[in-house]
Please model this.
Amino acid sequence: TTEIYTLSLHDALPIYKHHAQELAVIAKHLREQGRDEAAAQIEKGVEDFEKGNMRLSIALSLVQ
Model:
């Protein structure tokens, strides 16, 4: 099962990066509109997701 999760994570990274870029553009537009708190929440969500992916990757490498 570890291989399945590793493959899934590997396949998901390009998709995630695309969405992260889209979210960065949205956050930029929100900041331009003076909606800094909304932009900050989007940026925090992306950061938290990145940290979660890193932790998952480390955990999977430990069980291989």
Summary: The first helix runs from residue 2 to 32. The mean pLDDT is 80.
